[in-house]
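Deliverable D2.4 — example input (structure tokens):
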């Protein structure tokens, strides 16, 4: 059974009421996304516990962060986590789908959008409705995610997301069709020599001359500790780094 809370260096994430708990994917995305110079607004799509929104708040100064979550119980948990954090005045949580949220917007307003989205498009559905909503793309298709980002992202804004390897290639094509181009891509391996487990993607409205390609290995050979690169990326967050 998962712990009811997860303690980071500067904040605590309670997760008793959320279907999807704190995991490596969210920490990776929250630490990896390029937020340097992001002084406007940030949007976290499918915030769950509020983890990525909290990480974005820790990494920025004065930036306002909106986070949306379709599951009311999870949204309330995220709201409480935000209120208990040092950045309560900068984080706003709303229980709403991206589809509805983007339809209400009258103009693009976000300089950076982040999402650890549902991605098991062809997987068996979970009997847990909350977990299914959090993990299955039937609740938010790739086209709906792209459409929402296109509607909400400022002309010079960036969009960062994490996917399993095969899904990442599909999503890059879907996004390009709608004018969002991959400008940075990091392939994540659990250990050296293992297949790519996850892919971190960063998009812009401007088509790049070339894509910035990177590789990240989380653990050392034989799983005898975390790699220096992973420690460097996440050291501002994990207590034991």
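Example output (designed residues):
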């Amino acid at each position: 059974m998962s712990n009811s809370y997860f303690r980071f260096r500067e904040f605590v994430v309670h997760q008793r009421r959320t279907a999807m708990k704190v995991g490596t994917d969210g920490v990776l995305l929250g630490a990896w996304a390029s937020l340097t110079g992001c002084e406007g607004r940030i949007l976290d799509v499918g915030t769950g516990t509020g983890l990525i929104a909290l990480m974005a708040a820790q990494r920025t100064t004065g930036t306002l962060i909106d986070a949306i979550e379709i599951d009311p119980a999870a949204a309330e948990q995220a709201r409480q986590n935000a209120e208990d954090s040092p950045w309560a005045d900068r984080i706003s949580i709303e229980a709403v789908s991206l589809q509805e949220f983007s339809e209400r917007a009258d103009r693009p307003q976000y300089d950076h959008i982040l999402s650890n989205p549902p991605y098991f498009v062809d997987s068996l559905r979970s009997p847990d409705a909350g977990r299914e909503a959090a993990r299955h793309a039937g609740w938010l298709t790739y086209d709906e995610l792209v459409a929402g980002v296109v509607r909400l992202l400022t002309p010079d804004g960036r969009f960062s997301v994490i996917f399993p390897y095969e899904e990442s290639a599909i999503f890059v094509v879907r996004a390009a069709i709608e004018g969002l181009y991959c400008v940075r891509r990091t392939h994540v391996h659990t250990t050296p020599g293992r297949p790519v487990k996850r892919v971190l993607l960063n998009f812009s409205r401007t088509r790049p001359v070339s894509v910035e390609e990177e590789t990240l290995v989380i653990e050392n050979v034989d799983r005898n500790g975390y790699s220096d690169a992973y420690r460097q990326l996440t050291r501002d967050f994990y207590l034991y780094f």
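Residues 5-234 form a domain with the Rossmann fold fold (CATH 3.40.50.150).
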